[in-house]
Amino acid sequence: MPKIVDAEARRHEVVQAVFRIIASDGLERASLREVADEAGLAVGSVRHYFASSDELLVFSFGAVIDRIAGRLEASLASVEDASPESVEQHNAVLNLLGQFLPLDEELAVDACVWMAFRHAARIKPVLAAEAERSHRTVAAIVGRLIMILSPGEADDQQTLVTVAERLLATMDGLCMHALLQPEWMTAEMCSDVLMAHLRSLRTAPAGP
Amino acid sequence: MPKIVDAEARRHEVVQAVFRIIASDGLERASLREVADEAGLAVGSVRHYFASSDELLVFSFGAVIDRIAGRLEASLASVEDASPESVEQHNAVLNLLGQFLPLDEELAVDACVWMAFRHAARIKPVLAAEAERSHRTVAAIVGRLIMILSPGEADDQQTLVTVAERLLATMDGLCMHALLQPEWMTAEMCSDVLMAHLRSLRTAPAGP
DNA sequence: GGTGTTGAAGCACGTTCGTGCTAAAAACTA
DNA sequence: TAGTTTTTAGCACGAACGTGCTTCAACACC
Lengths: 208, 208
Prior knowledge:
2 copies of one chain form a homodimer.
Chain A: H1 7-25, H2 32-39, H3 43-49, H4 53-81, H5 87-98, H6 105-121, H7 128-149, H8 157-180, H9 187-203
Helix pairs in contact in A: 1-2, 1-4, 1-6, 2-3, 4-5, 4-6, 4-7, 7-8, 8-9
The structure holds a DNA duplex.
C-alpha cells in the first residue's frame, strides 16, 4: 500500500545521527531539529518514527546499551573458550575490558553516548529504566568474568559482588578519564592501569 | 556611599543556589532565571555579580573544586601526621578517600556538581581550564597519598603515576556508581570496595 | 485508473533561554 | 536635605526548543 521504506533501517539511521550529535555536542544538543538535520531529514519525518523527543532518546539509550552488551558478550565468549591461566585467556580478558574504553572512533562514540545517557538518567525519569538495565546487564557480564578468573571466590557471594563492583568502578573511572582528560589518560596509560588492576585481582583475591 | 552589601558573601549565596539546582535538576537547568529564583533574587541582581551565564558557571566550577581540594588537603594532613602502617593511618586514608564519595548530603551535592561540570567541560570550552585544574589538583593529592603509603614506588615515576591513576579511576568510578545507582552502590558497598582496593595496594605494589 | 495509506515536510503556538538596556530603590556622604 | 553610587528589578528582543496539526508526494492495491 504505502511507500516502501525499511522502517527499522530508518530508525537506525536516526539513532546513528543521535549518537554523532551526543558525541560531538553533548546530549542537550540532541534536539529534534538537530537530529533531523544530522540525519538529513525534516523534523516531521523524525517524528513519524519517534512519537516524541523522549521516545527517541529512550530508544537511542537502549540501542547503545545493546551494542555495548553485544560486544561484551562476544568478548566474554572468547574468554570462556580460552584455557584458564593461559596467555590466550589473559589477552581475551584484556580485549573484553578494552571494550569499555574509547580506544577507537567507534568505541569512543559509544562511550560518550553511554556516559551521557547514564548521567542524564539521574535527572530524567524516562531514562531510569534503561539505566538500570544497563547496570544490571554489564554487572552480570563482569560478574561472570570474575567467576571465570577466580572461581574460588564464587563461593562467597559477598566477595564476588565486591570484586566485580571494584572492577566495574575502575573500568568506568578509566573510561571517564579517557573521555574527559584524553591528554593525561592515553591509550598506554589505560593499558598500564588495566594490567596493574588485573595483576591485583590475581595476586590478592582475598585477605584480612 | 552605596548600599552596603558583602559582595563576596552574595556571590557565595548565588553559587550555593547553583549547586542546589545542579544537584537536584542537573546543570542544564542552572539558567540565570532558575538560579535567581533559587537564590531569592532577580535575574538582574545575579547578573550584577556575574556578567554572564558562563562567568557564573565557571566561578561555580572553581568553587566546587576549591571545596573538594580543601577537604582532601586537610585529610591528607591527617594521613601525614599518622605513623606509617598504623591503624590511625589506615583510618585517615579511609577518611580521605571517603571525601570522594557522596556519603552525606553535603558530599553528595559536591559530587553531583563536580561530575556535572567535568562532563560539561568536554563540550563547553569555557570550562576546560577549570576541568584541567581539577584533574591536576586531585591527581597531585592522590600521588602524594601513594607516596606516603608505598614510598618504595616513588623511585619509578612511571609506576607511581600508574598506581595513582588507578586509585583515582576507581574512586571516580565508585563516586559515579554511588550517584547513578544508589540502590546498588550503597555506603557499605562503597566501604567494601574501598577496603578491598586498599588491600590490593598493600599486597601487590609491583610485579611482572 | 482511481483510491487510500504512509512517508516527508512544514507551519504555528507557547515556553524558555541569554542578554542589552532602562529605571526604581536603597544607603551612605556632604 | 540633596546628591551619588551601588544594588535590585524588570522589560524587550532574537533564538531555540517540543509538539499539535495540516499539507503534499509517492506508491500498492482493487
